[in-house]
Amino acid sequence: MQDQRGGFTLVELLVVIAIIGVLAGLGSQMMGYSIRKGNISAAESEIQRLILGVEAVQLDNGDYPPTSMEEEYGFSGNGLNSGNESMVAHLASRAKGRSYFDFTEEYLENLDTDSLDNDSAEQISWIFGDNQLREYVDPWGNPYVYMHNRDYGREFSVTCEGSPVMVSAGQSEKTATYFEPIRFQIWSAGPDGVHENGKGDDVSQW
Ligand SMILES: [Ca+2]
Ligand SMILES: [Ca+2]
Ligand SMILES: [Ca+2]
User: pTM of the predicted model, to two decimals?
Assistant: First the structure.
């Protein structure tokens, strides 16, 4: 005889629980996927904005920001993240009467906790109220890599997932030439937090 009590049998209940479990799993997978996609497109659009800012710096100064501030200011901080810090300093500089970038506050960090001396900070006349040598970070919290074309072939130390790692300019495997040969390179380590010099899941300008 069938159970006529109107409730669920144990088997039916287990099936319903299993279905709910599968749906919840799918839901969280889809949520993870859409967060990842959102972060990637945020990184892409920040990189496009950075490119515009760096191009504007070049228009006013006749050159892109150097990969280290040492050449211009005799000061390179602690040697970590020097390209990103130089890019940020130039984008934030009002030395030519304007600054070049609308910084998203949550992406400004000073992960390696270095700072600029007072003379250089005055010379740069940046929009920040202190001397902190900031980095601009991607949606995963890692600084973008910035490199001037004359430094392609050199290795630079950058903070990634809390530790210093070495990076060098990205090259096309097909043509064995550097990407953006006469400009500069900007890229993010991407969702996996591992630098692949602009390849793999790295988010880059190319
Ligand atoms: Ca530094
Ligand atoms: Ca710093
Ligand atoms: Ca990567």
Answer: 0.88
